[in-house]
Amino acid sequence: MIPAAFEYVAPASVEEALAALAEHGDDAKIIAGGQSLLPVLRMRLNAPEWVIDLGRIDSLRGVRDGGDHLAIGAMTTHHDVGQDPLVHEHALLVSKAITHLADAQVRHRGTFGGALAHADPAGDLGAPALALDATFVVQGPGGTREVAAADFFVDLFETAISDDEILVEVCLPKRAGWGASYEKFVRIAHQWPIVAVAATVRMEGDTIAEARIGLTNMGSTPVRARATEQMLAGQPATEEGVAAAAALAADGTTPPSDLNGDADYRRHLATVLTRRAVLAAAGRS
Amino acid sequence: MTATQEPTAGAEIGRDRRRKEDQRLITGRTRWTDNITLPGMLHLAMVRSPFPHARITGIDTEAARSATNVVAVLTGADLGEGQGACINAWPVVTDQVTPAHLPMPTDRVAFAGETVAVVVARSAAEARDAAELVEVDYEELPAALDLKEAAENTVLAHPDLGTNVSAVWRFDSAEAGTGGDVEQAIAEARENGIVIEREYRQQRLIPAFMEPRSVVVDPTGEQITVWSATQVPHILRFAMAATTGVPESKIRVIAPDVGGGFGGKLQQTPEEMIAFAVARKLGKPVKFTETRSESLLTAHHGRDQWQRLTLAATKDGHVTGLKVDLLADLGAYVAIVGGGVPVLGAFMFNAIYKFPAYQFQTTNVLTNKTWTDAYRGAGRPEATFAIERLMDELATELGKDPLEVREMNWIKHEEFPFTTVAGLEYDSGNYEAATARAKEMFGYDELRAEQAERRARGDKVQLGLGVSTFTEMCGLAPSRVLGSLNYGAGGWEHAEVRMLATGKVEIVTGASAHGQGHETAFSQIAADRLGVPFEDIEVLHGDTQISHKGLDTYGSRSLVVGGEALVRALDKVIEKARPVAAHLLEASADDLEFSGGRFTVKGTDQGMAITEIATAVFAAHNLPDGMEPSLDSEATYDPVNFNYPHGTHLCAVEVDTETGQVKLRKYVCCDDIGVVINPLIVSGQVHGGLVQGIAQALWEEAVYDENGTLVTGSFVDYLLPTAADTISFEIDHTTSPATTNSLGTKGVGEAGTIASTPAVVNAVVDAVRHLGVSDITMPCTPERVWRAIADGSSGGATTEAAMPHFDETEGGVQ
Amino acid sequence: MTRISLNVDGQQVADDVEPRMLLVQYLREKLGKTGTVVGCDTSSCGACTVHLDGRSVKSCNVLAVQADGSEVTTIEGLAGDDGQLHRVQEAFRECHGLQCGFCTPGMIMQTVDLLNENPSPSEEAIRLGLEGNLCRCTGYHNIVRAVQHAAGTTDATEGAPA
Predict the structure, then answer these.
(1) Where are the transmembrane segments (chain C) (predicted)?
(2) B402, B450, B626, C46: which has the fewest C-beta neighbours closer than 10 Å?
(3) Are the Cβ atoms of C18 and A55 closer than 8 angstroms?
């Protein structure tokens, strides 16, 4: 219930935060919204000596129109991202995924960047970020660098962010007019997804011109269902055609086996949910 | 259909009074045990074994002792005999094998989570910090984890006992003279009838009350005061006194506001005993409040049985015999009534039916897992599940509607009172009426038509309808029956009525509420009986110094046993007041009538309110000669029989055959719980009970891995349903008043839980039976349903691993 | 120790706290606001829900130091100064939306937030809006009725037995 003791600093700028990180290095943990970190600390599964709170850095909050993309400040809460009209217009898939993310209280406090940096493969934002080809802006002592979504998720709870860096912004290429659906499969409502499928499609008449599909909890990182995407491109959005493409969704994935389902069941779910997500995104269900 | 209860004008009984308790609960002015802070209070943290079975070879407390603000670090050896023992109140057989249960063992741990040392510090945080510094050396021992293997004694949970079998308890109707020979019935059915043989699993559940357990012990003053989040303050006081040598009169136990129990707080816990011992040893007040993880790990679990069942019937569907063979997992110790839980089910497998022959046997088995004990329903949900699943299987075999097969076999309403094959006398009931009403509310025939249409269409989402017609024995319990079952205590209840000088009334009850609404319901009973305003009645409970006598709250007993004690105490008040009224009104006592709170002289307008008499008795200026100046009265009531609520529950589910996901579509029930005191409170009890029973069917399961670690150790993995997973219910009542208490009431606390589990599983199986499925193991997870559809199995075992959301220590949490 | 200053239920307070102290502990142990309770350690149950700067949060999942400079409203600050109950409190009593009452402070605080965002929610929206709050007693039926009653979207006694 009670975390082990730690020192606390709440820098007012990214630069100050980086300095604190440089000073305390391995002994420090960064806290954003804290919705995943605090349970870890309370159950004493981790006991950092320092906690660096990004909550006072106002520049990390908000959704900005970056021309061809949206820039979402890492400290923007899920609730604020979910309510944002720009996100709804240009990255509908993210809006849809956030509707189902955790619960209202967690969405009020948890942050977009925090959840992505946590890199829980069962987290609801990884698959949409991957499907949308998000770019992750990380800042370190040497300035900022950009990491493509495909390179960002390295392993279970592991990202391309170095120990001396902080995720400051996530850029989503604008995809206005794309349909989107996030099919999340749970046993009870407040669970992390057993499997979820993030699908967004661009329709040209009755034809799927382009499809982007990310899978949640089908491996140690979010994964793209590339084979399905390729098969869908240029196909009419029929039940049969989509089902045939969705049948490939789990190819090459390595989902876990746990209380909620074995790997083979998850692979099966991925194909069903992919079909449903694509049809919904295409406005066919 | 029996008469539907209509509240009479002005009467409190039957009225949907809003609860008296709520004002403090909705404004945050509640007194939970963890809210209590005393001067100089010290805090405890437990050092718990990570191993299910191990010898303790050394405990190094040095580093912890020298940590900041640590006052003491104590082991079982340090506490010695002062720690007392955790008692088993119900050795179900005289030669029961019962391992000694020290609150803090000194040499060997028998389940993961057992406490081996306690740290005492000035703050809870510092106690926890220091607990991390206690070094315990363990020599791991082989652990008995699987129930079936443990029953074979392959590995011993307690090597010194030489067996894992704690008890074998048996009932046979031929031997008892209550029915025929079940083996003969089965043999005949094999020749010329139907035999249904099944094995069902009752998974292990965790009561998961919302308020974690907490205990505060203050040893200063003449009495040692214990505040505890318990259902059983009186039993706890007895057990503390009996096992520590502290005189019972020197212990005061208070259960303040208690946040739910469901049987889970019906226990004398090691943590309470440790806190008691530490406070006595140090002479300072101490507090221990468990975390949720500790609660799920160490507060007793429930259910956990294998049920081998053989049902014999004639070719037309009349059941001729039922044979039940149980394996029950007691966990590491025989809990306070742990061994008795399966025995409570022994009388209920025959349920509402007229079975000519019946045999029940339970083998109670010790394992190296958390101990099990009562969880809402305690033995009766298990029994009801088994028989209601079997009746559906029989209906399938016969090709008949499941309700039709039940009706062929159930006790008709004109046959009450009815003595069952298990030897119980059911006082009243009307299964036909409850079933007719439930069917009407449900739209049974329309839903069957929709089901047929979906099947014909090959819809990916199939509809299933589930039936459960249940009864239960509650209102625990007639003391003579308990004695015959070797239970260590009685089943009476006590009440006291105090008539205050200002016209107010205090009711003291030995029942100990933890959410049920006793303050409201008991006020209604007293208001009607005494004719005083509802608002002028105060109900006091849960403090052994105020309520000096009681047997607490469990087994749906508070109203039917405690309520009857109250009625009797109230009647004594009226009878004491009568001679005073006669004296003051200068009339003969025989000429007085008591109604609406007033004594009146027949045929005149002369009268006097009972509250006025109370004031006069307080002044005592003018009383009949020789009269003791008090109207206060008490009564201790020992029930003459159990109490038998019943009902018909109908459930419709939609099963997504592609994913195995089960969605509740409709749930209807019509329960007969006799006369209803407060329909609003009853509705709450039914709704809450339903969801706990539905949760067993669909969601909850305590899972251990091969190392004996509880992998469902947090609310992330032990799945309590949320509002978003459940639906609104349609409930109604028929009323067959109980004939064994004055008010005609029957228990309702457990009804919903007992009835709903088989209704849901029957519905799930019904939805996919045409796809080759005849059973699905609980909980009916989507994966199990999907596998059952795929291969006709019952769905397979749960993988013993949790998702790793929180056990990441090095990753990129931001 | 870190100095924090915040407004809790309309009262300005300041304390030196350990950084590890959770907001809920601060409320309970430093301020004696024991109306807010702790039900779990994984932020699953929602019993500790309070409003932080006007939005519902789980106070077991916020450090007290993170609330520095903020406004916090707990169940104890919901009723008016004259003791007039908030309509959501009143609705929970009216509809028997509580039994043991342990989840109730969090359930009420989340309901207030839900109705602030959506004054006339459907039953589905209510159920989803309360998915972060566990109740073990009521089966949620009467909680949903209470929210509907507070929203004025249903009669309080609907669904109660005859």
Answers:
(1) none
(2) B626
(3) no
As its CATH architecture, domain A179-281 has 2-Layer Sandwich (3.30)
CATH code of residue B763? 3.30.365.10
Enumerate neighbours of A (3 or more CB pairs within 8 A): B, C
- Residues of chain C with Cβ-Cβ distance to A7 below 8 Å are 19
Given pLDDT bands bounded at 50, 70 and 90, which one contains residue B758? very high
Q: Where are the beta strands (DSSP E) in B290-430?
A: 302-313, 319-331, 358-366, 418-419, 425-426
Which is it for strands B135-140 and B165-172: parallel, antiparallel or unpaired? unpaired
DSSP code at position B480: H
Rounded CA-CA distance B57/A269 in Å is: 49
Domain spanning A7-53: CATH 3.40.190.10: no
Residues B534 and B611 in one domain: yes
Q: Please name the residue ranges forming H helices in A60-185.
A: 78-83, 85-90, 92-99, 104-109, 112-118, 126-131, 149-152
What CA–CA distance (Å, rounded) separates A279 from C121? Answer: 28
Q: Residue A8: which H helix or E strand, with range?
A: strand A7-9
Contacting chains of B (3 CB pairs or more, <8 Å) are: A, C
Residue in the block written with tokens 């299987």: B393
A34: closest CA of chain B, how far (Å): 7
pLDDT recorded at residue A216: 98
Tens digits of residue pLDDT in B691-740: 999 999 999 999 999 999 999 999 999 999 999 999 999 999 999 999 99
CA distance B321 to chain C (A): 36
Are B627 and B692 found together in one domain? no
Alpha-carbon distance of B652 to B172, in angstroms, equals 36
CATH of domain A60-173: 3.30.465.10
Does the pLDDT at position B600 exceed 60?
yes
Q: Of chain B residues 371-430, which have a CB less than 8 A from chain C? A: none
Token duo for residue B586: 């200068």
Residues of B in contact with C105 (CB under 8 A): 28
pLDDT at B5 over 50: no
User: Which stretch of DSSP H or E encloses residue B670?
Assistant: strand B662-672
Residue B765 pLDDT exceeds 50: yes
Residues B700 and B759 in one domain: yes
Domain count of chain B? 2
Supply the pLDDT for residue A33: 95
Does the domain at C87-151 match CATH 3.40.50.10610? Answer given as no
Lookup result for tokens 């020789």: B626
pLDDT at residue B556, rounded to an integer: 84
| Mean pLDDT for the stretch of residues B47-55 | 98
Scored b (16 or more CB within 10 A) or e, C98-108 reads bbbbbbbbbbb
- Best mutation site among C61, C109, C110 for testing chain A: the one with the most A CBs within 10 Å? C61
Mark whether B497 and B616 lie in a shared domain: yes
At C161 the pLDDT is 39
- Cβ distance A119 to B812 less than 8 Å, yes or no, reads yes
The whole-model pTM stands at 0.97
Domain boundaries of chain C, sorted by first residue: 2-77, 87-151
Q: Does A259 touch chain C (CB under 8 A)?
A: no
If you classify domain C2-77 with CATH, what class do you get?
alpha beta
The range of the structural domain enclosing residue B503 comes to 492-637
- Helices (H) and strands (E) counted in chain C, each on its own, are 5, 5
The verdict on B603 and B556 lying in the same domain is yes
C60·A4 Cβ contact <8 A: no
Instruction: Give the distance from residue A173's alpha carbon to the nearest chain C alpha carbon, in angstroms.
Output: 29
Assess: ipTM above 0.90: yes
Q: Are residues B656 and B555 in the same domain?
A: no
Please state, in angstroms and rounded to a whole number, the distance separating the CA atoms of residues C27 and C7.
Answer: 11
- Rounded Cα distance, A232 and A214, in Å: 14
Distance CA(A210)–CA(B630), nearest Å, equals 89
